[in-house]
């Protein structure tokens, strides 16, 4: 009889301990879920105030030091050093740690161009898809990106490659009406949506990969032998 009571007492202690362990695990799980970072989301509207972006490019934060004059870190420029749509866009861009896919119709903003080169220097894998008609215009950043060693592919002049989106670390989408040009940033009524949501990021990534493969230089028809011969003949005739 005594042995049975001891067994029941031990079983009760074991059950109580199990219940406490399960309750503690549930509380820890709730605490961890509560501490998870909320998905990044935002909307930016342009035109943007012209602000200094040196603080961001040097590793500082957006929006530090409002007003004109020398800014954080002793920046000597006379631009405002406050928050702006451009500084927020650049801050999102510079948050990349592993990869950046850019699909842009036109890209001439020197500030955003420097940010992309900085990411490349940090070891972020950067790939750029653009439109062939706009990549060689005055002020285009594409040549500078290529010179820096960044992979760039373009269409074959069959319609416009008119997309305007970026995917950061395969989880943050930046898209909207904005071309990454000084004209659009400073003068146009534009919008940009920032969304960290797999349901929406995934199709943009798939679209980028599809275009990336389609624009493989191995598929460019204007590199055909016949056209190369024609070009060589024109060059010879021009020397005579």
Automatic annotation (TrEMBL):
Gene3D superfamilies tied to this protein: Endonuclease Chain A (3.30.870.10)
PROSITE patterns associated with the record: PLD (PS50035), TAT (PS51318)
CDD domains given in the database record? PLDc_vPLD6_like (cd09171)
Tell me one Pfam family matched here: PLDc_2
List the Gene Ontology MF annotations in alphabetical order.
cardiolipin hydrolase activity; metal ion binding; protein homodimerization activity; RNA endonuclease activity producing 5'-phosphomonoesters, hydrolytic mechanism
UniProt keyword annotation of Membrane present: yes
Task: Provide the Gene Ontology terms for cellular component.
Answer: mitochondrial outer membrane; mitochondrion
Q: Which InterPro entries match?
A: PLD-like_dom, PLD_domain, PLipase_D/transphosphatidylase, TAT_signal
Q: Catalysed reaction(s)? A: a cardiolipin + H2O = a 1,2-diacyl-sn-glycero-3-phospho-(1'-sn-glycerol) + a 1,2-diacyl-sn-glycero-3-phosphate + H(+)
Ranges of residues in domain PLD phosphodiesterase: 157-184
One GO term of the biological process aspect? positive regulation of mitochondrial fusion
* Subcellular localization(s) per the UniProt record: Mitochondrion outer membrane
Give the signal peptide, or none: 1-23
The entry's keywords:
Differentiation, Endonuclease, Hydrolase, Lipid degradation, Lipid metabolism, Meiosis, Membrane, Metal-binding, Mitochondrion, Mitochondrion outer membrane, Nuclease, Signal, Spermatogenesis, Transmembrane, Transmembrane helix
Membrane topology (UniProt): Single-pass membrane protein
- Give the similarity note: Belongs to the phospholipase D family. MitoPLD/Zucchini subfamily.
Share what the entry says about its subunit structure, partners included: Homodimer. Interacts with MOV10L1. Interacts with MIGA1 and MIGA2; possibly facilitating homodimer formation. Interacts with GK2.
Q: What is this protein called?
A: Mitochondrial cardiolipin hydrolase
Source organism: Ornithorhynchus anatinus
